[in-house]
Design a protein that fits this description.
Elements (H helix, E strand, L loop, with lengths): L2 E4 L9 H10 L5 E6 L11 H10 L4 E6 L7 H7 L3 E5 L6 H10 L3 E6 L17 E5 L14 H15 L4 E5 L4 H10 L3 E4 L1 H4 L4 H14 L6
Helix pairs in contact: 1-8, 2-3, 6-8
The structure holds D-xylitol-5-phosphate and zinc ion.
The site of D-xylitol-5-phosphate has 21 residues, from strand 2, strand 8 and helix 7.
């Protein structure tokens, strides 16, 4: 079985309560919160207040994806806000090992994300320390972009690295995920699908969430 993490980036902020409830009732395993600072990516979104607000709406774990220039400075606030998993970008961390240790010391699971053009082997030295690697399958910054096909090759490479080292690390894939691309990334080795537009951009949010949940449920991968 694999897992589904709807991204509230594509939700209607005026219907956030309803949208979170709908995905929680229709198979979501995490709520994915995209944090953008206008520097690391050309867009601005949410701070720790959003994680806190979501925690009041649901018991589902909140997965905070920090697309920011200095993630180390924000870990304490996102942990205090109730994030279960904090993912930082490899490209944003001069001292990645220190940042990963800090996330864990603050009681959260630690993820590291790779932009499309960043090679998987940059994580070789640290893979045993990670709870999750997030393969970006679009250039981060916006929802609703098209899936980049060469991401599949990176998922295969990451899966081989994780299995070769017997590391307890999950593979999350984010960007352009729908029922077609979702099946491909699961076959390549993904454990968690992030989906924004395919769920919250649909006329029937509940049904779109269930459709994606169906493909993650069918998948026979690892469990956490
Ligand atoms: C992109 C974000 C994604 C985004 C995915 O920078 O990290 O989580 O919400 O959106 P879709 O599924 O619409 O590509
Ligand atoms: Zn994301």
């Amino acid at each position: 079985m694999a897992y589904l993490a709807p991204s509230i980036l594509s939700a209607d902020v005026l219907k956030l309560r309803e949208h979170v409830q709908t995905v929680a009732d229709n198979g979501a395993d995490y709520i994915h919160v995209d944090v953008m600072d206008g520097h690391f990516v050309p867009n601005l979104t949410f701070g720790p207040f959003m994680v806190q607000a979501i925690r009041r709406l649901t018991d589902l774990p909140v997965d905070a994806h920090l697309m920011v220039t200095n993630p180390n400075a924000l870990i304490v606030d996102f942990a205090a806000a109730g994030a279960s998993l904090i993912t930082v970008h490899q490209e944003a961390c001069n001292h990645l090992d220190r940042v990963v240790q800090s996330i864990k010391q603050h009681g959260c699971r630690a993820g590291v994300s790779l932009n499309p053009a960043t090679p998987v082997n940059t994580l070789e030295p640290i893979i045993e320390s990670l709870d999750l690697v997030l393969i970006m399958s679009v250039n981060p910054g916006f929802g609703g972009q098209s899936f980049i096909d060469y991401s599949l090759h990176k998922i295969h490479q990451l899966k081989a690295l994780i299995e070769g080292r017997q590391a307890p690390c999950l593979i999350q894939v984010d960007g352009g995920i729908n029922t077609q691309t979702g099946v491909k990334v699961l076959q390549a080795g993904a454990d968690i699908l992030v989906a924004g537009n395919a769920i919250f951009g649909a006329d029937d949010v509940a049904r779109a969430c269930r459709d994606l949940k169906t493909i993650t449920d069918k998948h026979t991968g690892r469990t956490v």
